[in-house]
């Protein structure tokens, strides 16, 4: 890595484009400090930056430690607006069909819109190389602190506080009623943006845990892909939608490959009390296709080895009544 490259990013980090009201918006520096932390502990090892519970929580920790102005905390705007920095070293990749959203800055003000539209950010490879090295990470960290938080002589030590593992414990251990009560309490106490972040983080942990208990295998088709890089071909599917009953318990989830997930959500398939697949009569298909849904009619679900996490029959009953197309 050349000295000129390092000098370039020292300049870029110390000359971030910010709203200068109230002494200057701290959002971009806080996000970059959070990013440095995630590289430091090895949770990020490449140039793709996904919106994860760990990253959003690091953002919150650094915000509470360093920001002394009365700016409102917000993750969405810096994640989006870093793409406007000179040099194109932070590039946003849209989710399929959401490309036009990224052209409308106004639509990216909320965290919900950001996560709906953006798949991830992609860093310049030269910057990634700097972030992967301890010496240059420390240098860039000092640049951010000196430039934007001069009253903080040293970055407070950040010890992992069990936030994400705590979310996992709630999903695994608490009853649906207890979990719903907690979500409703959060909704009354948190501002809308922070509440959106909290719901997103809990949904992410739910998806991780459901895929894990099904061994990354679609419980209907048996599809499972193993690779030396991080990839999964199954989704975590809520049986009863989260928006209906705020239920992220593992018994309200099943692992499905994307086409079956979509069919389940749209009521083309459902599951009976015997854990067998039922097909709707409200659609037609090419039955000669080796991929037709007809071949899974009556298929027995492959359930988690731990009976405690078997999907809820009450949830499937709800799905048959309210979603399934008869």
Description of the structure:
The protein has 326 residues and is mostly helical. It has two domains: 146 residues, no CATH class; 160 residues, no CATH class. The protein is built from 13 helices and seven strands. The strands form three sheets. Strands 1-3-2 form a three-stranded antiparallel β-sheet. A two-stranded antiparallel ribbon has the order 4-5. Helix 1 packs parallel to helix 7, helix 2 runs antiparallel to helix 7 and helix 8 packs across helix 10.
Output the keywords.
single chain, 326 residues, mainly alpha, 2 domains, 3-stranded antiparallel sheet, two-stranded antiparallel sheet
- Helical proportion, percent range: 40-55%
Number of strands: 7
Strand order of the largest sheet: 1-3-2
User: Mind summarizing the main beta sheet?
Assistant: 3 strands, antiparallel
* Large-scale geometry: elongated
Low-confidence stretches: none
Mean pLDDT across all residues, rounded?
A: 92
Q: In terms of quaternary structure, what is this?
A: single chain
Distance between the first and last residues' Cα: 63 Å
Radius of gyration: 23 Å
Q: Estimate what percentage of residues fall within beta strands.
A: 5-15%
Order of helices and strands: HHEHHEHEHHHHHEHEHEEH
* Total discrete domains: 2
Judged by helices, strands and strand pairing, the structural class is mainly alpha
If helices are DSSP runs of H or I spanning 4 or more residues, what is the number of helices?
Answer: 13
């Amino acid at each position: 890595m050349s000295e000129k490259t390092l000098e370039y990013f020292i300049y870029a980090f110390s000359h971030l484009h910010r709203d200068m009201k109230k002494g200057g918006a701290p959002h971009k520096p806080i996000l970059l400090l959070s990013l440095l932390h995630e590289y430091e502990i090895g949770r990020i090892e490449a140039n793709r930056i996904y919106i994860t519970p760990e990253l959003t929580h690091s953002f919150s920790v650094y915000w509470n430690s360093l920001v002394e102005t009365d700016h409102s905390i917000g993750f969405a705007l810096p994640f989006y607006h870093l793409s406007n920095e000179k040099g194109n070293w932070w590039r946003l990749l849209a989710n399929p069909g959401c490309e036009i959203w990224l052209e409308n800055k106004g639509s990216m003000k909320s965290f919900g819109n950001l996560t709906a539209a953006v798949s991830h950010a992609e860093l310049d490879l030269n910057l990634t190389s700097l972030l992967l090295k301890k010496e240059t990470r420390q240098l860039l960290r000092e640049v951010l602190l000196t430039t934007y938080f001069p009253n903080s002589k040293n970055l407070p030590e950040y010890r992992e506080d069990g936030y994400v593992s705590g979310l996992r414990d709630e999903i695994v251990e608490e009853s649906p009623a207890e979990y719903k009560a907690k979500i409703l309490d959060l909704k009354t106490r948190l501002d809308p943006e922070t509440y959106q972040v909290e719901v997103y983080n809990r949904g992410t942990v739910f998806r991780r845990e459901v895929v894990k208990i099904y061994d990354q295998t679609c419980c209907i088709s048996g599809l499972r892909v193993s690779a030396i890089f991080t990839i999964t071909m199954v989704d975590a599917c809520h049986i009863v939608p989260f928006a209906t009953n705020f239920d992220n318990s593992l018994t309200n989830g099943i692992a499905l490959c994307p086409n079956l997930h979509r069919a389940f959500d749209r009521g083309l398939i459902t599951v009976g009390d015997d854990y067998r697949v039922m097909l709707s009569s409200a659609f037609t298909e090419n039955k000669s296709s080796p991929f037709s849904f007809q071949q899974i009619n009556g298929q027995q679900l492959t359930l988690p080895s731990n009976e405690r996490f078997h999907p809820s029959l009450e949830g499937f009953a709800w799905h048959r009544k309210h979603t399934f197309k008869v």
